[in-house]
Amino acid sequence: MSSSNTTGNAAGAAGNGGTGNTNTNSRCRWPARSAATPPAQILNKIPELEKAIFDIGPNAKPDQFHRSRQAIENYIQTTYKDPRDLVQAFRTLKPPSSLVPPTRPKRDPAKPDDYDCDLHDYKLAKDTYNTRKEKFAAHEANAWGLVFGQCTSTLRTALTGHAKFAQCKDDFDVITLLQL
Fold it and tell me: For residue 117, with 0-12 CB atoms within 10 Å meaning exposed, 13-18 middle and 19 or more buried, which class applies?
């Protein structure tokens, strides 16, 4: 009886590729896994933006970019203080038109009183411009991290290989990041 067990084990070992396992279940093949890729891994863990993912590849949906951009825009509007310039940049993918520096008035010898009024208006406009520019720069840096964090690891890898990415990252240019 022991000799038949040894020959059974030897035959089983030969049939299993030399593993020595005689279990008949080990010969069964597991069902093939589906071809779907695993769920996207994003850096941000913001509940409001759970489904707002920028992706490329087989899982990317045609309208996903637009819906993700819309969700991030809504998040910025509800959480940032005075985000109007950043929202305008998100919508148009261009720098906001309100961030153009005011022009300094020129002195007209025929109207010296007008120059003083124009200079006062210019100083107020310049202060407003500087405040909005600083706020936009701070918001843009936060939005850059937000948008980049909502990209899948595949897209982040593709973006880091792009020629314009290094400059975009150094400047926190969210508009260029969305255009890449």
Answer: exposed
* 136 confidence band (pLDDT: 50, 70, 90): confident
Strand partners, 151: 54
User: How many CB atoms neighbour CB 72 within 10 A?
Assistant: 23
**Choice among 6-20, 72-86, 145-159 with the minimum mean pLDDT:** 6-20
User: Token pair for residue 49?
Assistant: 């933006």
Residue listed under structure tokens 């396992």: 21
Q: Dig out the tokens for 51 from the structure.
A: 């489904």
CA gap 108, 102 in Å, rounded: 18
* Number of domains comprising the chain: 2
Other Cβ atoms less than 10 A from the Cβ of 143: the count is: 26
CA distance 142 to 33: 39
Q: Are residues 47 and 3 in the same domain?
A: no
Q: What is the pLDDT of residues 27-65, one digit of tens each?
A: 656 555 555 555 556 666 676 677 777 767 666 677 777
Q: Residue 125: give the domain boundaries.
A: 38-179
Please return the burial class of 21, using the count of CB atoms within 10 Å of its CB with bins 0-12, 13-18 and 19+.
Answer: middle
Average pLDDT for the chain: 75
